[in-house]
Design the sequence.
């Protein structure tokens, strides 16, 4: 048998069987299969989980299972997870995870159950796993294993005041240089307003800084070495810190999303570079509804490479009932539930849901929602999920990025020294296996 | 009798001894970023010596401890004297003074975070309205330690004052009567009688506050997370991050045991002082 014959007579039928396999399983799928069981879900009390858990009773009715929710704030949720996982405990069946942050680490620790097979074989007819953002699925795949299913799509975007831009004779910025020029002009035009605000708090900096680095054309690692002291790396550090130091609010080194949203919502910032998830908070009260424009962060020499991440839903490798937990994960990431969540302002990680007529109607109600969705569309197509270093010690790497930016904001070091110190520490982290 | 008390003894041993022994054991282990564990001997402790972040954390911890304790003892004694001599509305005044330390530290931290926000906070508004320059407060590497010490002192000075007030109320009136007959001024009476007699009570308050101050965590975690840079990175914050954010549980255990030893040392030193000033 020639190789060509092997391909046509043997492999093709196998591929065909594999392709229809999911449908065959879908036909047998029974949501009540695990009726009477209790699934424990470790949740982060963020808007994503809050929106999801609005429909907790629907899940329990659909499956006959009980959903026990163990909810904490983000950092406390991770502490709980670390404790549970280090004890090899089966207390948690499913948990929320941020693959861009802890994915490498949790995968290397063996904390994620492999969802590859279950997501193909144990799915309801309308689940459509292929309809989920392929970029986010890829970002949640480590060593060939699918570790979580995307719950939402998010990333930092630029919120800007159209009325102030008009007053100061400015057009919407198209490049990073335009952002800085606009900030300079606004500073002279309206001294009561902070021209630009973004994250300055050390552990939070990487989220927004990564977007600037990538737009400028920089990268974190080249040939296995930290690359912050490259020309592009230094330019990114310098640009980001200069925007915050010269045009940001006093005390910006302690700013994370809460402070940024509060400042912008109160009308005291002209531009805010912050998460797309903050739309609801920023628009709370309605004061910014009619004078806000939204866009992905403007391009640099490297083009427009927005940061795109999403919370994922994972099954614990220590769970004694991974299949039942998978049913919960599947329900939580199903098109139906994600559509309901989308109507609460949680950006869906499914393009089909984003094009759903009911969702489009909700989007069309306000111009700012249209711009928000347009920005998210760019994030979905062009985004990079690299926030901090793509290494196991990613959370620690964010500390050193934040330290370098803070050193520059506070003028404690020149850029050469700040990047060299960061590179030295980061090379140590990269070398850790 | 021994059999009856056995459950209580076992419970106590289980609740106190086990976590300590387990932490000691963890301190001799090393955990990779992926959670792989191996015996490390004294490596975690020798690493402390060359870890600049540890020495910086120790310095920050001591600076906060000294500044906060001094503020709380001085103002606590003053407040106790005011409350002791207050005649009108003493009940209401005492209830008001107690309220800060009844507040959960997280709430206190959030409240001060808003008040001290350099852009939106009331503190800078007040400073500017009286013609003073605004401050970066918690965002300034120079001012973050004094600011955190002030927040903690706002919350815990009334607690010190209550302890000292109890001490004041137990002082023998005959000594004051004798001083009055001898014509001692109020200042001399305070210097020569009140303060020396109150010293054991003040040292007790210092011991109680020292334990908390050396383990300083909640207010910093809420307000600065150890920043700006690492300007307010106390040993406790550093240990927490190493353990629960970077998952190096072995090194974090070594850090926390070292901090525990420092706390014990401080308590022992104060206890000796208390013995020396007892009357």
Sequence:
């Amino acid at each position: 048998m020639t190789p060509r014959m092997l391909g046509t007579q043997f492999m093709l039928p196998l591929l065909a069987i594999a392709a229809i396999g999911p449908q065959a399983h879908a036909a047998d799928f029974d949501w009540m299969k695990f009726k009477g069981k209790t699934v424990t879900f470790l949740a982060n009390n963020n808007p994503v989980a809050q929106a999801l858990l609005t429909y907790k009773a629907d899940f329990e009715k659909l499956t006959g299972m009980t959903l026990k929710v163990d909810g904490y704030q983000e950092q406390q949720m991770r502490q709980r997870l670390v404790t549970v996982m280090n004890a090899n405990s089966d207390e948690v069946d499913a948990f929320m995870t941020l693959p861009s942050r802890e994915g490498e680490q949790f995968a290397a620790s063996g904390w994620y159950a492999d969802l590859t097979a279950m997501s193909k074989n144990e799915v309801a007819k309308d689940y459509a796993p292929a309809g989920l953002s392929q970029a986010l699925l890829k970002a949640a795949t480590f060593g060939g294993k699918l570790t979580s299913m995307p719950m939402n799509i998010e990333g930092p975007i630029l919120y800007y005041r159209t009325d102030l831009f008009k007053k100061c004779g400015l057009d919407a910025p198209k490049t990073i240089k335009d952002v800085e020029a606009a900030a300079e002009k606004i500073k002279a035009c309206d001294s009561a307003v902070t021209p630009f605000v973004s994250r300055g708090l050390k552990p939070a900096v990487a989220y927004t800084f990564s977007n600037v680095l990538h737009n400028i054309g920089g990268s974190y690692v080249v040939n296995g070495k930290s690359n912050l002291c490259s020309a592009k790396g230094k330019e990114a550090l310098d640009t980001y810190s200069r925007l915050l130091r010269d045009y940001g609010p006093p005390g910006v080194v302690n700013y994370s999303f809460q402070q940024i949203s509060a400042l912008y919502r109160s009308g005291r910032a002209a531009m805010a570079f912050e998460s797309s998830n903050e739309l609801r908070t920023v628009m709370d009260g309605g004061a910014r509804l009619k004078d806000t424009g939204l866009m992905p962060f403007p391009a640099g020499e490297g083009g427009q490479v927005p940061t795109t991440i999403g919370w994922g839903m994972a099954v614990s490798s220590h769970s004694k009932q991974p299949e039942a937990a998978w049913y919960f994960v599947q329900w939580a990431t199903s098109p139906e539930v994600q559509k309901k969540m989308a109507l609460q302002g949680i950006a869906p990680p499914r393009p089909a849901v984003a094009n759903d007529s009911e969702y489009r109607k909700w989007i069309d109600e306000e111009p700012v929602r249209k711009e928000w969705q347009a920005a998210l569309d760019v994030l979905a197509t062009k985004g990079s999920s690299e926030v901090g270093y793509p290494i196991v010690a990613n959370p620690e790497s964010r500390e050193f990025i934040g330290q370098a930016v803070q050193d520059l904001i506070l003028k404690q070091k020149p850029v050469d020294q700040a990047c060299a110190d960061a590179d030295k520490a980061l090379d140590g982290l990269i070398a850790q296996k | 009798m021994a059999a009856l008390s056995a459950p209580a003894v076992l419970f106590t041993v289980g609740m106190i001894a086990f976590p300590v022994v387990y932490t000691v054991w963890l301190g001799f282990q090393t955990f990779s970023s992926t959670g792989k564990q191996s015996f490390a001997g004294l490596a975690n402790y020798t690493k402390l010596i060359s870890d600049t972040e540890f020495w910086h954390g120790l310095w920050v911890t001591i600076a906060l401890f000294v500044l906060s304790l001094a503020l709380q003892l001085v103002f606590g004694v003053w407040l106790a004297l005011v409350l002791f001599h207050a005649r009108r509305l003493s009940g209401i005044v005492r209830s008001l003074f107690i309220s800060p330390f009844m507040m959960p530290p997280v709430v206190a931290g959030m409240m001060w975070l808003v008040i001290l926000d350099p852009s939106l906070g009331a503190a800078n508004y007040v400073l500017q309205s009286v013609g003073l320059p605004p401050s970066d407060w918690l965002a300034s590497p120079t001012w973050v330690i004094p600011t955190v010490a002030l927040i903690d002192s706002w919350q815990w000075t009334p607690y010190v004052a209550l302890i000292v007030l109890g001490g004041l109320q137990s002082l023998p009136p005959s000594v004051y009567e004798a001083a009055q007959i001898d014509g001692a001024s109020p200042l001399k009476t305070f210097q020569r009688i009140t303060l020396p007699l109150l010293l054991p009570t003040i040292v007790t308050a210092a011991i109680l506050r020292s334990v908390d101050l050396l383990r300083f965590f909640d207010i910093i975690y809420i307000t600065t997370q150890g920043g700006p840079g690492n300007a307010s990175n106390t040993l406790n914050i550093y240990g927490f991050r190493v353990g629960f954010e970077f998952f190096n549980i072995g090194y974090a255990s070594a850090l926390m045991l070292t901090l525990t030893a420092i706390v014990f040392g401080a308590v022992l030193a104060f206890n000796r002082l208390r013995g020396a000033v007892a009357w």
